[in-house]
Amino acid sequence: MRRVLDWLAATARAEVSLQDADGTLVAGSGLTLDATLVADLCSGRIASAAWEGEGRHLRLVRIAHPTRTCVLAVSREAPYDRHTSDVVTHSAQVIELLLTAHETTEAGHRLQRATSDLRLAILQLLMVEDTVAARRVAAGLWPGLLDADTACVYVVECEPGRRELLLEECLDTTREDALVVRCPAVDGHLIVVSPREAISDALRVLVGRHADTFLGGSVRQSLARTATAYAQAVSALAVARFRADKTAVYAERTHPERLMDPAALRVWSARVLRPLDALAHHTRAELLATTRLGLEFTAVNTAKILGVSRNTVRARMERVETMLGVDFDDVTARAVVHLALHTQINLQDARTGIAADGHTPGLAHLLAGPALGAWARELLGRLDLDSRNVRRTVRTWIAAGGNAERAAQSLGVHAQTVREHVRSAEPVLERQLLAAGTDLYEVALAHLAVGDLERPRLSGE
C-alpha cells in the first residue's frame, strides 16, 4: 500500500493521503480534509470530488471496502490533465484490491490462529482427562479424529526458529489424522496426538528430511492417559537425540508397580486418595490431573501445558498436599503419591478400601514383596561398582529433596560433586534423575523397598 501511494505521489507530483471515515490516516501524508465532504464520500452519497483553491488542486476518491470505506486524497499545485486524472482513478482501483487482499490475508491469519488455539484447547482437555469435551470440540473441524479409545502421543523437536515451517509440513503430512499442536511449554516442540498407526511412519519420514530434528513417541494409551503418554514421548525424545535415525519410542520396562500385588496396590491407592473423594467430580479430576503433570514437570511448564497460571498449579498441588497430608518437597512422598495416582488411572474400576481377604494393606506391605525387593536390589546394585560410592550420594541427594547443596553438607563434599555423581548414575540406572519425574520416583521407590530411605507419612496410611 505504501509503495503504491509513494508511486502515485511521484507520478502525479502531489501529496497523497489515504484516510478512513474517522479521519484515521491509513497511509501517506496527513492532508487536512473537509469533514463534511469526507462523510459524503464514505456514506456513498458521492463517489468522487474535486476542489480548487489556495493554489492547490485536490481530488478525492471513495475507496469501497467490505469492512471499512476509505478516501484517497491527492493534492497538487498544477491542474489535473486527463493523464493524471486517469492515474488517480486507476490507483484507486489498485488500492481497493490491495485493501481487499489485505483483509483476506488478515482473515486467513485469524482463522489460522483460531484453529491453532482450538487444537491447543483440545490437547489441554485431554491432559485433564476430559475426553468427552475434547471429542465434542474436535468433532466440528476434525470429525472422527478422537473416536478411537486409544492413541499415541509424539513429540517432534527442532530449532525454535524452524518450528513454524515444521508445523506446516507436519499438518500437511498428517492431514486430518492427527492433532498437531505447538507445545506451549517448549518453543522447539510440536505435540502430535493420533490414534492412527500410520502416523508414526509419516513422522519418521518427516524427521528424516530435516537435520537436527528428533522424534519421541509413547506407547499406545487410552485418551484419558494423554498426560502419561506425553511424559513417555518426552522421555523417548531424550533417547532419540543419541540415535542415528533420530527417533525413539518409549521402551516398556519393568516398573515397580507391576511387581506389587495388584489387588493390594489397588486398595492402598484408593485409601491414600480417599480424602479427595469428598470433592465434586470435576474439582477432583482437575486436582488429580494437575498433580499428575506437576509431579512430572515444573510448575511453569505444567501451567503452560494446561493453559493456567503457575500460581493456579501451585495452589492446586498445595491443596492436594494438605488433603493427603504429604509434603511434596520430600521426593519419597512425591514418589508414593505418584504411584497412587498412576494406579488410580490404570485401575479405575476400584474404589473399595478392603481387599478380597479383608486385609487393608499399607505401603510397608506393598514394598515388602519379594519380586519388588529383587528388582530394587538389582537396580541399585549397579551403583556399587562405582568406587566413588555413588549409591550413597544418590541416596543422600534423594533424602535431601533433590537439593545438591543440602546433600553436599550432609556428605561433606562440594555441591558440584553431588551433581556429577547423580549425573553419572543416570546411564547406569538407565533413568533420568536430575529431571524430576517417573524415572526419579522409581529410583526412590527402589530405595524404600530395600530400606535405604525412611517411608513418608500419608494421612491415608
UniProtKB/TrEMBL annotation:
Pfam families, alphabetized: HTH_30 (PF13556)
InterPro entries for the chain: CdaR-like_regulators, PucR_C-HTH_dom, PucR_C-HTH_sf
Gene3D superfamilies linked: PucR C-terminal helix-turn-helix domain (1.10.10.2840)
Residue ranges crossing the lipid bilayer per the database entry: none
Annotated ranges, domain PucR C-terminal helix-turn-helix: 300-342, 391-446
Protein name: Helix-turn-helix domain-containing protein
Organism: Streptomyces virens
Lineage, broadest ranks: Bacteria, Bacillati, Actinomycetota, Actinomycetes, Kitasatosporales
